[in-house]
Design brief:
This protein has about 130 residues and is an alpha+beta fold. The protein has one domain: Gcn5-related N-acetyltransferase (GNAT) (Aminopeptidase, 3-Layer(aba) Sandwich), CATH 3.40.630.30. Helix content is about 25%, strand content about 35%. Strands 1-2-3-4-6-5 form a 6-stranded mixed β-sheet. The longest helix has 15 residues, at about 60-75. The radius of gyration is 14 Å and the shape is globular. The relative contact order is 0.17.
Length: about 130
């Protein structure tokens, strides 16, 4: 298990992301969460995917990502939409239909987020993408 792989975010950033955030809760305890971050109406990122350590390897991560993707397929009005994620585990997303790609395909992300990241000079994340029409 990797520790501290999520980047720190302010309360303001988390509040801004709530409209497109899915959370799995059981007994008042957050088990898993994921957010969609829109750069444009035709480009969004799957971000802040986290599963409580006691509940990993039970499919909860896949379930919350699938809920977000299902929302884009069924309820999001603008199509096509290009969905991407930066991840240490591309195989996780490949099981959900994503394919590996290059981070450079997402200049919006690099310009708005990556240039300010504390890990920008040693980023080990890989990019995956999914087109939804």
């Amino acid at each position: 298990m990797r520790a501290k792989i999520l980047l720190p975010r302010s309360h303001y950033e988390i509040e801004q992301d709530l409209p497109y955030t899915w959370v799995c809760v059981q007994g008042g305890k957050v088990l898993a969460t994921v957010s969609l971050i829109f750069f444009r109406q035709d480009l969004c990122e799957i971000r802040a995917l986290a599963v409580h350590p006691e509940h990993q390897k039970k499919g909860l991560g896949q379930k919350v990502v699938q809920l977000a993707v299902d929302f884009l397929r069924q309820d999001y009005p603008y199509k096509p939409i290009h969905v991407f994620a930066l991840t240490y585990i591309p195989a996780f997303f490949e099981k959900l239909g994503f394919r590996r790609t290059e981070k450079e395909k997402f200049p919006d992300k690099i310009y708005e987020v990556c240039q300010f990241c504390q890990r920008r000079h040693d980023c080990q994340e890989l990019a995956v993408e999914l087109w939804i029409s």
